[in-house]
Design a protein that fits this description.
InterPro entries: NACHT_NTPase, P-loop_NTPase. By secondary structure, the chain is of the alpha/beta class. Helices cover 55% and strands 10% of the residues. It is built from 35 helices and 15 strands.
């Protein structure tokens, strides 16, 4: 209490800064400015044998007598860059890590060299403390931990940030650290007194807040930043619009908590370790990559993380408490040119108050901010600069990056991170392969949309398992909701996954027809086909440029092409058609351009694929001329080509066979090379032998033992077995997972051993499992 009264008495009488801001300012400046200075002083005493121009990496290699590879260094000293030679850029956590590792290394050096041996590389650092005893650093590290814990509480718990007493606690902890350093390093009394005086002077200077100081900017962010971001994003993110009929649901009500799988490396694939999504933040790396196929739920996951950040309560989303601020950036953005512009969008009023967005940006990188970047696979010529700037600045800050991408762009992303010395861990979103998971997902939408309980889920249960394989991604389950609402009669007719994509486009035409019914009674089928060609061509042109948002000017070009087609049949605005296919994105700040997008990138790809299929059916042009893509644009049309293969296999299998060499080359040019790439094609086109063969050969090349763990994998392996046979096929599944047809195909086509492990649910250990075992008789 005495400490508090002293602080209050030394506060300038005419200063009207609110008590809370005053407390926050001192606490933040204390942990960001004063504490690191003291710890750097201690580190300098531990490193008296390091040459001034020598990096810590070179110094440690000199002591150990060996060099570290990049991987080894990252694993052992991940927080310390390879070229760091002075600890000025390290915060308390980095300094603690450095001191702890160096002190242990020095002890190892002494243990490996006999006393008095001239070969010891430590010439200046003493083995003895001030009392002549062997030096013991545990007490010093304990004192340092106390400072670190104070810093963590001040920076991560807002109620602690507001507490005036923490300013005194921090000062006491720093003085105790200096006193312990005196004992360990036998420091002269004069040097110790100088350090203590510096601490007293620094703390005294913080009694008078400086509004031009970066710590004042940090204070304003701590006070108002979170609310500013909440006001910006919450309204937009709380509601979710269904893709086909613009029905609105509340995102928190329908959010399905996704699991993720840890990736050891892209080549190895998921390592099978399944985690709940909040555990991704337990990874120590600066960057967290969340990958997933089209429609896997990447964007939805990020949006829910953002919403949870605003509603932090005890026991709710504790994994986000480590972050002071959150910044969301969408890679599809084609108008925001710099990170400073992103900051201005998030903190418009604060930028004005603090005399510029650059001041706020500098302050942000002193805090623990989470940059949430959505859709790296959608990055364009403008947004790539913003993403690169975020990653570059993150490498030397307290901030972290959470970024989503489709798998084929993860390699490029990892290279960008590595180039900027940012270590990363990748997590892949686990597909919803279990029927119980799928029904749980649909039940939430059933309730939110006001559909009679059990009606939609019972309809889903009637799907045959070959079709149900398609519904392992959230976007397809959401599209099922739309199909059930508008075309329930078609659901029972689905026999293959390709039937679903056809009906999605048919549903779009039906919804447009319903709109046109208000203005005409004429037959519009031919007109709609022509309009969808225009829309599909535009979709392809935008995809080539990796653009999923369109400006009003770009949309006007599409409208101009629609008008002549409409005038031949009916007098109406092109808005009627485009309002069904596209959604409007109004600028959050109220200023700037309105943009337009398809309801989901995969739907844009379906429209583009349908355009290509129709052109191929005319059998006039080469695929290369239809795509009209530069080599560097081919990766953008990768998923489009998969839908093209699916569409041709459904309507003209013989034409697919004829055009396959062209399609295969285009897929290869688009980056479909490894088994993981071909497997994704095979997932969308499970009955296409042209896809199954390269998938099988690439799989066998990568691994002679094949593992099967889900019904979906049964279908994939059954399709591949005619073209390649592994040495061993290990099947570990629940008996009800695979379809009877796919399992029978797998057993019939397998030449060689099958190691089968059936995972019967608890309480059902004595189930006959005839559907699995009978096809194996006689094999």
């Amino acid at each position: 209490m005495d400490g508090q009264s002293v602080q209050a008495s030394s506060r300038p009488a005419g200063d009207h800064i609110a008590d809370e801001i005053y407390a926050i300012y001192r606490n933040i400046a204390g942990v960001l400015h004063v504490a690191p200075k003291v710890i750097r002083f201690v580190v300098s005493k531990e490193c008296v044998d390091k040459k001034s121009n020598e990096s810590y990496k070179k110094y440690i290699e000199r002591l150990k007598g060996k060099e570290f590879s990049k991987t080894e260094w990252k694993r052992q000293f991940g927080m310390i860059s390879e070229d760091l030679s002075h600890p000025d850029d390290l915060d308390i956590t980095g300094l603690f890590c450095l001191l702890e590792k160096l002190s242990r290394l020095h002890d190892e050096c002494w243990r490996s060299v006999k006393p008095g041996d001239k070969k010891c590389p430590l010439e200046k650092l003493s083995r003895s403390d001030k009392n002549g005893l062997p030096r013991e650093l545990e007490k010093l590290l304990d004192k340092l931990r106390k400072v670190k814990e104070l810093r963590n509480k001040i920076m991560h718990e807002f109620e602690v940030t507001l507490a005036p007493q923490k300013f005194s606690d921090l000062k006491t902890a720093l003085l105790e650290l200096i006193e312990e350093a005196e004992r360990v390093y036998s420091l002269p009394q004069s040097e110790v007194e100088d350090q203590k005086k510096n601490v007293h002077d620094d703390f005294e200077s913080l009694q008078t807040p400086d509004k031009k100081s970066i710590y004042h900017w940090c204070t304003r962010l701590a006070m108002s930043g979170k609310l500013a971001v909440k006001n910006l994003w919450k309204t937009k993110l709380t509601e979710e619009t269904l893709p086909l009929d613009n029905s609105i649901v509340q995102r928190p009500e329908v959010f399905h908590s996704l699991d993720v799988m840890v990736r050891r490396s892209r080549r190895d694939g998921p390592d099978g370790h399944v985690l709940p999504y909040p555990d991704i933040f337990k990874a120590p790396e600066k960057a967290i990559i969340v990958s997933g196929v089209a429609g896997a739920g990447k964007t939805t996951l990020l949006k829910n993380i953002v919403l949870q950040f605003f509603e932090l309560q005890e026991g709710n989303a504790d994994y986000l408490r480590q972050f002071n601020q959150l910044i969301l950036f969408e890679c599809r953005d084609r108008t925001t040119e710099s990170l400073a512009d992103v900051i201005e969008q998030h903190f418009k009023d604060l930028c004005r108050e603090l005399e510029g967005k650059q001041n706020l940006l500098d302050a942000l990188f002193l805090l623990h901010a989470l940059f949430v970047i959505d859709g790296y696979d959608e990055v364009n010529n403008v947004s790539t600069n913003v993403v690169s700037e975020i990653i570059k600045k993150t490498s030397s800050s307290n901030c972290r990056v959470l970024i989503t991408t489709r798998p084929h762009s993860a390699r490029k992303l990892e290279m960008l991170l590595t180039t900027n010395d940012v270590n990363s861990t990748e997590f892949e979103i686990k597909p919803l392969t279990e029927l119980a998971e799928q029904l749980e997902f649909l039940t939430r939408y059933e309730k939110s949309l006001g559909i009679k309980q059990g009606e939609m889920t019972e309809s889903f249960k009637t799907l045959n398992k070959d079709v149900r394989i398609l519904f392992t991604e959230p976007i397809n389950l959401i599209l099922f909701c739309d199909m059930h609402k508008h075309m329930p009669e078609t659901i029972s007719s689905w026999e293959k996954p390709g039937d679903v994509a056809t009906d999605i486009l048919r549903l779009y035409k039906k919804l447009v027809t319903l709109k046109l019914a208000d203005v005409t009674h004429l037959e519009c089928e031919v007109m709609l086909d022509d309009l969808f060609v225009v829309i599909g061509k535009a979709a392809l042109e935008f995809i080539r440029e990796n653009a999923v948002t369109f400006s009003e000017k770009e949309l006007l070009q599409v409208k101009r092409k629609c008008i002549p087609i409409l005038k031949n049949t009916v007098e109406c605005s092109s808005e009627i058609i485009l309002s069904v296919v596209l959604k409007v994105n109004r600028p959050l700040s109220g200023a700037g351009e309105t943009t337009y997008t398809f309801h989901h990138k995969s739907i844009q790809e379906m429209f583009a694929a349908e355009f290509i299929v129709q052109r191929i059916l005319e059998d006039k042009d080469t695929l290369k001329s239809i795509l009209d893509a530069e080599p560097e644009e081919m990766s953008s049309v990768r998923e489009v080509l998969q839908y093209v293969v699916q569409g041709l296999s459904r309507c003209k299998p013989r034409l697919l066979k004829k055009r396959w060499p062209e399609l295969k080359k285009a897929l290869t040019d688009a980056g479909v090379v490894s088994f993981a790439d071909w497997q994704e094609c095979l997932r969308i086109c499970p009955d296409v032998e042209q896809v199954a063969k390269p998938a099988a050969l690439s799989k066998l090349k990568e691994n002679k033992t094949w593992h099967v763990g889900t019904g979906r994998e049964v279908a994939l392996v059954a399709a591949m077995l005619p073209y390649a046979q592994p040495d061993l096929l290990e099947v570990k599944i629940k008996p009800d997972d695979p379809s009877k047809r796919r399992w029978a195909e797998l057993v019939k086509r397998r030449v060689g051993r099958v190691h089968l492990v059936l995972q019967n649910p608890g309480g059902d250990e004595y189930k006959s499992n005839d559907d699995i075992l009978l096809p194996m008789l006689g094999t």
